[in-house]
Amino acid sequence: MVQVQARIATHESKGVTLLLIGTALLYLLLFLGLPLFAVFYEAFRKGWELYWAALQEPDAWSAIKLTFIAAAIAVPANLVFGVAAAWVIAKFEFKGKSLLITLIDLPFAVSPVVSGLVYVLLFGAQGWFGEWLSAHDIKLIFAVPGIVLATIFVTFPFIARELIPLMQAQGKEEEEAAVSLGASGWQTFWRVTLPNIKWGLLYGVILCNARAMGEFGAVSVVSGHIRGMTNTLPLHVEILYNEYNFVAAFSVASLLALLALVTLLVKSLVEWQAKRSGEPLHHG
Amino acid sequence: MAQFKAHSVLPGFNLALGYTLLYLSLIVLVPLSALFFKTATLGWGGFWEVASSDRVLSALRVTFVTSCAAAVVNVVFGLIVAWVLVRYRFFGKRVVDALVDLPFALPTAVAGITLATLYAPNGWIGQYFAEYDIKIAYTPLGIVVALTFIGLPFVVRTVQPVLEDVEAEVEEAAASLGAGRWAVFRRVIFPALYPALLTGFALAFARAIGEYGSVIFIAGNMPYISEIAPLLIVAKLEQYDYAGATAIAVLMLLISFGFLLTINALQWWVSRRGVR
After folding, report:
1. Which ipTM was obtained for this model?
2. Which of A57, B93, B215, B270 is the most buried (most CB within 10 A)?
3. What ranges make up the beta strands (E) of chain A?
């Protein structure tokens, strides 16, 4: 009898529990499950042949290639930056550190559209460097370099944000021990620091990559939407959708949805591995 | 003069700091400063003219009202989702937990065309509302739907770790002193969650204000009714009105930056109270 009382006091009644679980699942089904299912449903609606045809189109192929190129440059660039920034912030005490952390987060506070706009202002035809660039026949805006730059901008904080709290939590005793035993800076980094942060690093890379491949607003502003030339996958989806070519639009979209699912899967695996190895991940 | 940097035996400070500052400046600070220089060419009069025009004001209003509505929806349901994920056990919980991050991983354009298809008057969800003459897609309501999707993970992910840290002993103590379940939630659990809920709200709200990709497909983009501020920037750019586009961008940036500071202050407050 006493036990039943205690249970009621710190747990909800069965009815409330079921109601809460039901509400949560219905909400997630409506906003997450159904859209995810709908992408694949709409893609395969008219059968496999049309699905394959949409993906084998030359414009779709060049969009896939450009998306990979942008991510292949943006992710390593932000990876090197993230490691350098985290090393400085986590291992040293200096003035203006919290300002630096805030500035690193800045791209997250900027609308994707504005992220593209700033590069148009710099490198566009009427931009600061516009005349110089056109005199030297260099095209950055409405061309691939602009797309890469905009992608770097929007994914800028991802890896740094992941590594900074992680390395701060780990402290610097291990590195100090290594250095005082005679290890060089690089040796210390490769043999002591890197093994400690590998899961957090991977976690940041995955999130950074997902955003780099899926970015729409910033890339849309600098792309110029030249089919087969400056269209990334998300932009190709938009063009097809606006042409009422829904099957093709959803077919290409299904590739991106697949990428999202793989991202979530790998992310869960990394979280699980990090938990096992006792490396605290920073979520969000 | 106090020292800029405390002494350390670790190497690499100059190299790492130099690279960090150089990269930060080249990629983020210099481009962003271009916004302010471009706006300055307008002068105060020109800036005010753009900022106070009817179309800009209604776009800002649409953006802020829909962002706020979506963030409120996410606070309510995000709390329920976080609660369910932390406190109960049910079949498929780990999959559901992983799926919460879908809006972070799914490209916004994909979310946009899918939600527009689902909530259109002949879509799977939209058709039930169409029976009652309620249009969701191509109205401000559609914008709220898209922004709710985009902001869904924020509240869940900020509340979840805090809820995990609420100690069972505190609840037991309250219960043994005669508090009912609702009273325990209201007086013991909710005060602990309150800062995290606020942070989650601010994050979802800030993200929603700048959102573009998922909104434009479902909004219908009618000037004065369902046109969001980021779309107006794009529209001005397409007319080569760089200064006008920049003025709106600066307005939005100032507002967003205010929010970023608020979020940081909130997080500082949360950590000071030792809740997280």
Report:
1. 0.90
2. B215
3. none
